[in-house]
Amino acid sequence: MNKETGILHAVARGRGGVRVPHRKNTAEMSVVRMPAPETVVLPMQQHIGAPCTPTVKVGDSVAVGQVIGDSDKFVSAPIHASISGTVTAVGDVRLANGLVTKGVTIKSDGEMRLFDGLTPPAVNSKEELIAAVRASGLVGLGGAGFPCHVKLTVPPDKQVDTLIVNAAECEPYITVDYRECIEHAYDILGGINVLKKYFGFSRVIIAVEDNKPEAIKKLSAIADEDLDAGNIVRVMTLRSRYPQGAEKMMVLSATGRRVPPGKLPADVGCIVMNVASVAFISRYLKTGKPLVSRSVTVDGTAIAEPKNLRVPIGTSLSDIVDFCGGFKTEPRKIISGGPMMGIAVCGTDAPFCKQNNALLAFADEHDMEKTVRDCIRCGRCVEVCPMSLMPTLIERYSRVKDTDALAKMNVMTCMECGSCAFACPSGRPLVQYMRLGKQILKEGGNRG
């Protein structure tokens, strides 16, 4: 630790990962609030877990923050109206990833009226805090979309002593978490304090990659001046190496604890939360306004005016692009998310969802794509895999649907970070085969 600044420096642990071009073109662009669109489409599946069921019908008048979809399942998160207006459709909608789910379409009345029932929740216990987080509709804002109340519901046989606030943002292009650190540092600390109060963490680590010196400086300053932090909040700098922001790598880098295959951070005494998610908790407890908008980086060589935006959930991708000046040239590829873990979309009609942190559009083949050639058995994919897997063999076994071999290769532990595909000199689509292998194993497949 630097005794003058109180900043912790992580020891290089573990293996794997790759150095990717940062391309943080929008890092110095403040987040701009996008005006409400004329129409939003709110899918009932914007999270990992059970989809919600619409609670409104065509013709209903709704207000901002009103629940329009919910589920009685534990692993789920309610959906709220992001604009005020009239429900014009309830039916199937197609997501950016091609999946179809139920959705609610709202036509704006131009007023952005807040729902009358929005009040700050009364929180006096850990259980009430978890209930409030669920009611807010919060899911992991780093891209995973895992319901945050589930993450905070730690089984009674597990003890957690460490909160890790993930501000690594290791994917190229994306800068919204960086802007959160710069623009809303006190909200981050407010969220930390309430989580510390009810969970009794003995230490809190705000983990930031070392390529974000201004964020490190800002967060360190507010951590040092905040007396309520109890002197347990520390900023830790991590080496800039993808996928540093992945939960299991984050736990290892920040604490030295290894999360075993099939286990979660809570199994080794840690809770990992995205920095924007932590900041949102602070704001929600003050206002009672649920998750109806989020920040997104819009960038890429085909975007006329790259920006960081605050966008109402359910806005069409086309409306977002138009607000950024449209396409300056016809895009060759559009990606929802980052270039490493994001998904290619075939158009811009899909709605913007809670877990979307970036929208990228490239006019030409971007520098992280390669022409596909035969495998040359170089072993680079094995060398860079942070989970110590053998992607080249998993590709082979996925092709022939050999479930026994896929199980022995531990394909289910793959985090789909894309390091193997990035490092492959032959441009093999290894991540797709990892996903295929996992799907084959889940469905039973054919025995080899």
Summarize the structure in words.
The protein has helices spanning 126-136, 148-152, 176-183, 185-199, 213-225, 247-255, 275-287, 317-323, 380-384, 391-399, 403-408, 419-423, 430-443; strands at 8-9, 31-33, 39-43, 53-54, 61-62, 67-70, 79-80, 85-94, 100-108, 162-166, 203-209, 233-238, 270-274, 293-299, 307-312, 333-336, 343-345, 358-362. The relative contact order is 0.15. By secondary structure, it is an alpha/beta fold. The protein has a six-stranded mixed sheet, covered by helices on one side. It has a five-stranded parallel sheet with strand order 1-12-11-10-13, with helices on both faces. The chain has a four-stranded antiparallel sheet with strand order 3-9-8-5, with no helix packed on it. It is globular, with a radius of gyration of 22 Å. Among the domains are: 8-15 and 123-287, NADH-ubiquinone oxidoreductase 51kDa subunit (Rossmann fold, 3-Layer(aba) Sandwich); 380-443, no CATH class. The protein contains 13 helices and 18 strands. The longest helix is centred in the middle third of the chain and has 15 residues, at 185-199.
